[in-house]
Amino acid sequence: MMEKVRLGIIGLGAQGGNYTRFISEGKVKNIVIGGFCDTDPDKRKAYTEKYPDIPFYDNYTDLLNSGNVDAIVTTVPHYLHPKIGIAALERNIHTLVEKPAGVYTKQVNELNAFAESKPELTFAVFFNQRTNPLYQKVKELIDDGEIGDIRRTNWIITAWWRPQGYYDQSEWRATWEGEGGGVLVNQAPHQLDLLQWIAGMPKKVYSVVKYGYQRDIAVEDDVTVVLDYGNGATGVFITATHDVLGTNRFEILGDKGKIIVDDSKKITIKRLHNPESEMSNTMSWADIKKLTGGGDMSQIYSEEVLEFKSVWGKQHIAILENFAGNILDGTELVAPGSDGIHGVALANAIHLSSWLGKEVELPIDEDVFLAELNKKIQEEKRALVEK
């Protein structure tokens, strides 16, 4: 039996470098590095000097065929995640894809379908925020019915300030052809996943998206979305990269209370003593005036505040260990690879609604989305030529 998983790290940018450091420093249980892969000659030079005993490959096919890896993680541009994932699974190599699982649902569905044909292999997606105790607690509260049926969700997540210099680092960044979008595919995929993981997928979305609003880029840097969950519940999701002051506040309103998450550090739980509908039917206007006029609100709800501390990197390590655990002993996956489709589907729907100027239903028409995306890519190419 395998004692430790030999992991191939494909792509040695920021995330690939972080995973290399975590594993090489012994912070990740049951994983060793079996090989590196990157197309950058400078990365080859740096990594072969620092890790002379670990093979380095210029292309992922050579790494996959080397026999030196049992599993891989794809820390590459988003378009490549499904392609490399399928190539690994074809060779019976366990696969962990970075978020997002792809740029459009058609390619992610192809990856998921192929993974289903290889049930003996571990297939996961790097949703490290699912290991965050704070969001695990929020999901537990919702699943346990602590605030009853959800009526509304509101998430303002604008704590992604990125100056123009960030976008100017490389030609592929913040482009339709290179990255497949802006804040929705780069910064906010974790929140899109958490939103649907905790509250469920909406049935319809209507979005107002600004492209190159405050930055010299072709893709989105400001997003406002109205969510329709199909059962009367609604939501709003707002994200941007131009708010230097930034806000991160997630509210979930239920018929029996409210959950408020501030800065991914604090949960405030307000539990109604009686469901709101019952209060509405039994309380007189005089009773309400007493409360709103400075009365004792503890008569109608209790409040609990939970504080959380987050150690950077701990959640990434947890996903890597969970991935290895599933390979070695069948530990249940925190983020099965098949779950990667949901955030991509939501991002695609948000983009498509803004492109068509109307509300769209989920699941969207994949062919319509891809045609519109290709239009954006062609427009982008023409603009570059004109420059």
From TrEMBL:
It holds the Pfam family GFO_IDH_MocA. Residues 6-120 form the Gfo/Idh/MocA-like oxidoreductase N-terminal domain. Residues 135-259 form the GFO/IDH/MocA-like oxidoreductase domain. Gene3D superfamilies: Dihydrodipicolinate Reductase, domain 2, NAD(P)-binding Rossmann-like Domain. GO terms for molecular function: nucleotide binding. It comes from the Bacteria. This is Gfo/Idh/MocA family oxidoreductase.
